[in-house]
Amino acid sequence: MSTQHIRVLIVDDQRLMREGLRIILEDAADIEVVGEAENGMQATQMAQEKKLDVILMDIRMPVCDGIEATERIRKQASTPQPRILLLTTFDTPEMVIEGMRAGASGYLLKDCSAEEVCSAIRTIARGQILLQASSAAQLLAGLTNPATPSPTAQVETNGLTMRELEVVRLIVKGHNNTEIASALSVSDSTVKTHINHIFAKLGVRDRTQLVVLAHQSGIA
Questions:
Q1: Which of 26, 72, 91, 105 is deepest in the core (most CB within 10 A)?
Q2: Can you give the pLDDT at residue 152?
Q3: Do residues 64 and 130 both lie within one domain?
């Protein structure tokens, strides 16, 4: 994340929505709008060309929708990768699931307030995960699949240690590696090692998937 401003790209196929979001964000002293895109294809290209902290991404767009764009951006080699906040009028389990599985870090409905949008961007930029309460409930309910082993069974089978469980719970609360290291009185490198072990044992690729699994399994 930028040390002075959170650099944001606005992606929405409606010009009026883009202009409205720009006005809202430019009123925040710590947020800088560095570009706009009207579809996911443009967003994918701009994510390669610009230094971005957060992409405010609509889901329903022509040419390339927000979920597909999120997947493409996650596959790009840029480091660090921008965090993606999905913004949509739709609140269904399917869309929440698809968006988070694609690699989004948060999900917000378009009926939220200007303050909520800015707060969500700051949360995402800090490396935390954000879901509205209704979306989180739908996400966890929608991920339940009787045909697959329960998350609890997965956690038990893969055998997290007590220290690893502590790390998981701190991640779920939104703490970064340095904060976890301080809470557990260990080094940052030790925390990174624990997280790598947790990801390998649970078969998750990032913190977003870990948080979903932790909530679903009841270990959060």
A1: 105
A2: 47
A3: yes
DSSP 158-198: HT--HHHHHHHHHHHTT--HHHHHHHHT--HHHHHHHHHHH
Question: How far from each other are the two terminal CA atoms of the chain, in whole angstroms?
Answer: 27
Q: b or e along 27-56 (b: 16 or more beta carbons within 10 Å of the residue's beta carbon)?
A: ebeebebbbbbbbbbbbbebbeeeebbbbb
Identify the residue whose tokens are 């764009």.
69
Nearest to 56 by CA among 125, 155, 134: 125
Q: What is the domain range of residue 195? A: 151-217
187 & 138 share domain: no
Tokens of 169: 């719970």
Q: Mean of the pLDDT values across residues 75-84?
A: 81
Indicate the number of domains in the chain. 2
Return mean pLDDT, the chain.
82
> What are the tokens at 204?
């998750």
